[in-house]
Design brief:
heterodimer; A: alpha+beta; Alpha-Beta Plaits; 2 domains; 4-stranded antiparallel beta sheet; 11 helices; 8% strand; B: alpha/beta; binds adenosine-5'-diphosphate; binds magnesium ion
């Protein structure tokens, strides 16, 4: 397709459009296929975007950190902290460790107990922040060793349970994209079928056009234009219905879990608009491919 | 690519052309030159290969052996686009005239203009004159399936010449019409030939060929026994 052909495709040519007779069932098949596929694509897209948001949020919350809390009698506190720090530094999968200072701990407790907290007089546990490497550490093994060497230490890795969830959310997003690709492929296949049927039904038309000196590009364009417009129109309607469906999903709350989070946010609402355009592109290439193959075989 | 026609050069030239359908040779070793402005009849029994022969002349078929040159261009060297452009200079009337049945006759006759990107409205006067010339003015809005055999033949002829081609190839245009209509179609082709067009017309109607001979100088080619021969004065 040259630039001139593309221009002719978009602007259209009232005369050229009429050389192919209106075809009933292939038109309906194309409209239905692109409409249904666009409808499904909206949900696949919403799924991808929602799971993407979820994965990002959970991954941020993880931040690969854990805490070791040491509760010990005041005279043993410093010694146990020292042992715990040394032990943690030797643990594979630990990137860095750092004991909170008194001032930091006071700041942490400030919202709960007010500014006048006499920290020295209270048996406040010492906190050690542990930053993991990308591989992470073996929590069960670390717990056992802490137990043996630092009796007052408790390892708190409460954010760890979310890691498989992040993986799951990532996987879900990937499945969403794969669905979109499959939907596009199925749509291309159906439109190709419809285009082939239309081309076969119009063999005489093609022969007549050839006889009077029509170039292949001209004949192909007459078909391609039709199917592209039908694909665009069908997909626009299907996309509209899909978006309405998402719009009317009940919204429980912001944190309302995965199901109610299914949808678009902000500028994300513009993404479904891409679907009809993609459908038109798919129809364009599927029909063009079918037309040129048929025209070659009729040479 | 040029179709520049030198003065005096042959419009169509065949060099030892042969054609076989899946191994079965229909004719072979045909060499022939068609001069500009000539009028040729092609005759022979049904099934002899007249239609096949004509299709070789406008590139709808490629010869099994030998070479076909049209307007000094070897057809073997043309791709499909090249053939399409060449076909705009050759008006073809098929044996079974086919039209776009969903379009009115006038649009069908304008089809060669449409597909070559010409402005049909600018040529409206020409189109009208042409429709009048073939006597179909009253049928301009009819759909092709509503036309009689003779009307279809005249419509096909009008469509073949709207681009003012240099060559007109007609495959048994009088095959399905009565004697009066045959005469009328022949008359149209003779007129075109007098305007300088090269005409090749297949027909097995010897009476019609004899009638033509009284009006124009013609050469009669006959396919028989897998050879193309020039028919003698006995016709
Ligand atoms: N597409 C084809 N495939 C095989 N044989 C064909 C084909 N077209 C024509 N023939 C055969 O070639 C012979 C000549 O056909 P045709 O050129 O139509 O002859 P004519 O026009 O003189 O009647 C016939 O025997 C016909 O059956
Ligand atoms: Mg024939």
């Amino acid at each position: 397709m040259s630039g001139k052909d593309v221009k002719a495709l978009i602007l259209g040519d009232a005369q050229a459009d009429r050389v192919v007779p209106p075809t009933g069932f292939t038109a309906r098949l194309t409209l239905f296929a692109s409409g249904a596929m666009a409808f499904l694509a909206v949900f696949a897209l919403a799924l991808s975007m929602a799971s993407g948001r979820l994965a990002t949020r959970w991954a941020d919350e993880l931040a690969r950190s854990a805490t070791v809390r040491i509760s010990a009698p005041a005279d043993q506190m410093a010694a146990q902290t020292e042992v715990a720090l040394r032990l943690l530094r030797q643990t594979p999968g630990v990137a860095s460790v750092r004991a909170f200072t008194d001032a930091e701990q006071a700041a942490l407790l400030l919202p709960w107990f007010g500014p006048d907290l006499p920290l020295d007089d209270l048996p406040v546990p010492r906190l050690i922040e542990v930053i993991e490497t990308a591989e992470g550490f073996d929590a069960a093994g670390l717990r056992l060793r802490l137990q043996a060497e630092v009796p007052g230490a408790v390892l708190d890795d409460h954010t760890r349970w979310r890691r498989p969830l992040v993986v799951a959310a990532d996987r879900l997003r990937l499945l969403g994209w794969i669905s979109i690709a499959l939907i596009g492929g199925a749509m291309a296949a159906m439109i190709t079928l419809a285009a082939n049927a239309a081309l076969a039904a119009n063999r005489q038309v093609i022969e007549v056009l050839r006889l009077v000196g029509a170039r292949d590009a001209y004949i192909a364009r007459a078909f391609v234009r039709r199917f592209t417009i039908r694909g665009l129109f069908g997909a626009t309607v299907g996309m509209g219905c899909g978006v309405l469906g998402i719009l009317f999903l009940p919204q429980v709350s912001d944190e309302g879990g995965f199901l109610t989070g299914l949808g678009f946010t902000g500028l994300g609402w513009l993404w479904p608009l891409v679907i009809p355009l993609l459908a038109a592109v798919v129809a364009f290439f599927a029909t063009g491919f079918a037309a040129h193959r048929t025209l070659r075989s009729l040479a | 690519m040029t179709f520049g026609k030198e003065k005096g050069a042959d419009v169509i030239e065949l060099e030892q052309v042969g054609y076989s359908y899946s191994g079965a040779e229909l004719f072979g070793d045909v060499s022939l030159q068609l001069a500009p402005g000539s009028f040729h009849f092609l005759t022979g029994p049904s099934g002899a290969g007249k239609t096949t022969f004509l299709r070789l002349l406008y590139g709808a078929l490629r010869p099994t052996t030998g070479r076909v040159r049209v307007f000094d261009t070897d057809l073997a060297g043309l791709d499909r686009d090249g053939l399409a452009l060449m076909r705009r200079r050759i008006g073809v009337v098929h044996q079974d005239c086919q039209f776009l049945d969903h379009l009115p006759l006038a649009d069908n006759l304008a089809l060669p203009l449409t597909v070559s990107g010409r402005d049909v409205t600018a040529e409206a006067a020409n189109l009208k004159e042409l429709i009048n010339w073939v006597g179909l003015t009253h049928r301009a809005d009819a759909r092709p399936p509503e036309l009689s055999g003779g009307e279809r033949q005249r419509a096909a002829l009008a469509r073949a010449i709207i681009m003012s081609p240099d060559v007109i190839i007609a495959d048994e245009p009088t095959g399905n019409v009565d004697w009066d209509m045959s005469q009328r179609l022949l008359q149209l082709l003779v007129e075109l030939n007098r305007m300088g067009k090269t005409v090749v017309m297949a027909s097995h109607d010897l009476a019609l060929i004899r009638a033509a001979k009284t009006q124009v100088q013609t050469r009669v080619l006959r396919i028989s026994n897998r050879r193309l021969q020039t028919a003698g004065a006995d016709l």
